[in-house]
Amino acid sequence: MTQPETTGAAPGTPSMISMQGVNKHYGDLHVLKNIDLEIPTGQVVVMLGPSGSGKSTLCRTINRLEPIDKGAITIDGVPVPAEGRALARLRSDVGMVFQSFNLFAHKTVLENVMLAPLKVRKLDKAEAKKRAHALLARVGIESQADKYPAQLSGGQQQRVAIARSLAMDPKVMLFDEPTSALDPEMVNEVLDVMVALAKEGMTMIVVTHEMGFARKAADRIIFMADGSIVEDTDPETFFTAPESDRAKDFLGKILGH
Ligand SMILES: Nc1ncnc2c1ncn2[C@@H]1O[C@H](COP(=O)(O)OP(=O)(O)OP(=O)(O)O)[C@@H](O)[C@H]1O
Ligand SMILES: [Mg+2]
Fold first, then answer.
1. What's the whole-number average pLDDT of the chain?
2. What's the whole-model pTM score?
């Protein structure tokens, strides 16, 4: 599995995420149409496309929140398992952050970040605590460790959600519109954490409407429409010389005001 040169990866770089001939339907609706996608280790992919084009569905198939009808998905060379222990392991390899933060309301920030390492990884409590503090420091909210989620701003809660995902040492991070539910003044504090993560070499897929982030942090833009990948290129090319009418139309709408 090698990467075509157009995506900016060195030829021959092995894929961290590989999707081959992936198809998915919801009833009669063909939501993912023959998706072939190779994402090398450390690549930051921003996924764009109109509402309903299949971006969220594609992300959700990667950690098997959604099963596929046909095709194959591998993470770091390992086929995405259907169920059981192997699936639990996959879920810890693939972190996912959504628009809604989904923190445990009755646990403190620190406990939220400690929970999975304690339960899934069977980490020693002192070690889990030490690591959770370090992760909270990394996302800039160590001082909030003993508060409850409701006592935090949206931006702070989303940073806790990122720290909680990172606590499992994922190989891949999926972000599905992580800043869409935030007040505008909180968007950047979350994007800054994501930019830092990208610089550290995390393999990331980010669905976002933040074009500044896409231009600055993406190695590659995937543009989807109607369940297909319509453009797959570098940000400069995508934003200055999109090829398809669908992408031109999309950019016209999103950059037009
Ligand atoms: N659980 C479901 N059951 C049936 N149809 C679904 C389901 N989830 C999504 N769909 C449909 O599949 C298509 C793709 O949805 P998806 O959520 O992946 O799009 P999206 O690109 O993420 O859109 P948005 O930008 O609005 O988030 C849409 O037509 C949607 O209505
Ligand atoms: Mg979506």
1. 92
2. 0.93
